[in-house]
Amino acid sequence: MKLTFWGAAQQVTGSMFLLESDDYRILIDCGSDFDLDEIGRKNRYEEQKGVFPFEPSLINTVLLTHAHIDHSGNIPNLYKEGFEGRVVCTEPTLALTALLLKDSANLHQKRLNARLGSKKRGKKQKEVPKDYYVEKNVLEAMDNFVPVSFGQRYRIADNVTVTFYAAGHLLGAAHIVVEVFENGEKKRICFSGDIGRKNYPLLIDPQEVPQVDYLVCESTYGNRLHENTAEPVEALADVIKRTCIDIPGRLIIPSFSVGRTQALLYTLNKLYLDKSFPFIKVFSDSPLAHSSTKVYQKHGRMLNKEARSFQEDNDMLFDFENLIYLESSDASRAVSNYNEPCIIISSSGMVQGGRVEQHVEANIGNPYATILMIGYASEGTLGWRLLNGQDTISIRGKQLPVLANIEKIDVFSGHGDQNDLLKFVRMQDPEKLKGIFLVHGEQQSMADLQSKIQEFGYNSVEIPSRGRTYEL
Length: 472
Description:
The chain is α/β, with parallel strands linked by helices. It has 14 helices and 22 strands. Strand 8 (about 160-165) and strand 9 form a beta hairpin.
């Protein structure tokens, strides 16, 4: 059995791992790589003569840990380049992936239209990137998705079975255990996906994974601990009171549309049920978030006990009296003219593209505005620059002074911290575990987590480079 690391290797994004046994090939995740810019991706695709460094038609099955685009975003391209198999995932992952891939396809279509417009105006047309796809490609891919349940063993080949365990990180997110029967011997390997945290709003806690022989573990927060220990309701109430009640200000919360926004809306709903808390208008400014919220509502049976009880008592998990969903771009822009204290939740969470950029641009010079960062922001993104205290920032080519207040809480981060990652690893007996592979993290994060894991007696802890193959 061979395992090759083709993505999220010594970097955060682009999760993609190829597992081969005899003539059967399994791709675990097939994510978009955001660590490379467009020129870097173009050079890589020219070098490997396609979007992928392997022949997609030879892949038999894809196993998808969860819907986030850095794990799912290249699936349409896999089919475009010849893959004819199925994608196996949980039912909520299927629904959320369909939304995210369609959203990605719409972005690609807009960029394609802009290139065509440049050609009509007589300008030199840029080459269409090889990894662009449109909605037709997404629909063709989604026809081949097969939903499975948590905790059930499924046979995907004569000698291969898979079991999905809840990972907590996102609705439907999974740790995947693959069992391969090879040369009369059973080998088990677990792919962590993204590891969630205990007591996260809406989501069940990460499930325990049985003993395996090999562990592929993410390391996003490999050298960090969550700073905030308050309950999400208390943490959010404190920020709102200081930024919208004590002063007549506005609170802008950059938030990922899938997962983070639902946790926020649920927490606000709980907060506003306390009639002593002043009603402040909340604008949810992301059509994708609105669609994703409906998926969460539909799959309420898969949420944690507290959320299920809340829904039984109050009917709606997310909708409350002072919540307004902004569907159109015009409605989004019009919020700038709303002069009462308010909360604006908009994507993306790293303030990199999306409608939130216009809200930050409109309010960055307002000392009565607060921008609240609630999650991880990759180096170089606008969110990262705000968190690092830059005096001026560039948005849409304009240099703007930062007069707004910048705050951060991490109670809504969907990633487990170093302690959570260590707890996940330590479910495995160091005497029985033959190897650990750290992926999906910045290099320093991986190195620090590697040292911590080794302190607990795990000897074989690898940090694979891209394209590295291991014989298991």
